[in-house]
Design goal:
mainly alpha; about 290 residues
Length: about 290
């Protein structure tokens, strides 16, 4: 099943998760990584939408230009045919010899000169059209190559960017896990130690008094340590983990929220520029 794209509802749901003390940091990190993976779908969708929309506009412009010159060529062929008819008519007039009437002869000569002049004009017009079509084809080829290069240039940093996000989240989670282990150990050991020292001050056997029985000498510390591990250790670890993680998780969510907003703006720009809604593009893609 393909990964769905990121939505505003997903971001809002994660904001609520960050304010929920029942959520574990491990779960929050997993969800954060999942949100970035889903946002990668948004970025890929934008890249595809931008590419296909630009390609469609390019092909539409190219087809429009070709259609214009195709009409010019059809009109030129019509004029060449008319010229051929005039040539045939002039030849027929001379088929029976040169007329003796000078006025008629002058008309024939004038017609031939006109035919030659019109033929030159048509040849020049044909050469111009051929040159324009050649330029259009070359320009279209360059534009296609440029568009493909832009797409390729975008793919490489796009993939590396989200790979970096993923590594950054993993690195942050590992660093926080190490800190949690250290602070949790200090708390779990420190609290029984404080209890042991406190009761030692009121005369109970603790670290502050030496006896030959080591276990009896530290029984308050040991009992407190066992109780802490059984009843409070997980809560302490979760609490410390949340305290150390919440700032990073909120900053990461803020970064993702900014990236999501920029993605939405870019989609709106492409929709306005190429006059095609994203929903229509997605619908066509699903059909294909």
């Amino acid at each position: 099943m393909p990964i769905p794209s990121l939505s505003e509802k997903d971001l809002e749901a994660y904001r609520n998760d960050l304010s929920n003390p029942e959520k574990s940091t491990g779960e929050l990190f997993i969800k954060l990584n999942g949100l970035y993976q889903r946002f990668a779908i948004n970025e890929q969708l934008l890249a595809d939408f931008e590419y296909v929309s630009a390609l469609n506009s390019l092909e539409s412009s190219y087809a429009s230009k070709k259609e214009y010159f195709n009409k010019e060529i059809i009109e030129l062929k019509r004029q060449f045919k008319q010229l051929d008819n005039r040539i045939v008519a002039a030849e027929q007039k001379l088929r029976h010899g040169i007329p003796e009437d000078l006025l008629v002869m002058d008309k024939i000569i004038a017609e031939q000169e006109s035919i030659v002049e019109d033929q030159e004009k048509l040849n020049n017009a044909e050469a111009h059209i051929v040159e324009q079509v050649r330029k259009i084809d070359i320009e279209h080829g360059k534009e296609l190559q440029k568009l493909e290069q832009q797409q390729n240039n975008r793919e490489t940093p796009f993939k590396s960017k989200f790979s970096a996000f993923n590594e950054q989240i993993k690195h942050a989670e590992k660093g926080i896990t190490l800190k949690v282990s250290g602070f949790s150990l200090l708390a779990i050991i420190g609290i029984p130690l404080i209890i042991d020292l406190f009761f030692g001050m009121i005369g109970l056997p603790t670290f502050s008094k030496s006896t030959n029985n080591i276990i009896f000498n530290h029984y308050l510390f040991l009992i407190s340590l066992i109780l802490m591990e059984i009843f409070f250790a997980d809560k302490i670890r979760n609490r410390i983990s949340l305290m150390l993680s919440i700032s990073y998780l909120k900053d990461s969510l803020s970064t993702l929220d900014h990236l999501f907003s920029e993605n939405e703006k870019q989609i709106a720009r492409v929709e306005a520029e190429h006059r095609i809604p994203l929903a229509e593009f997605i619908k066509r893609s699903e059909v294909l």
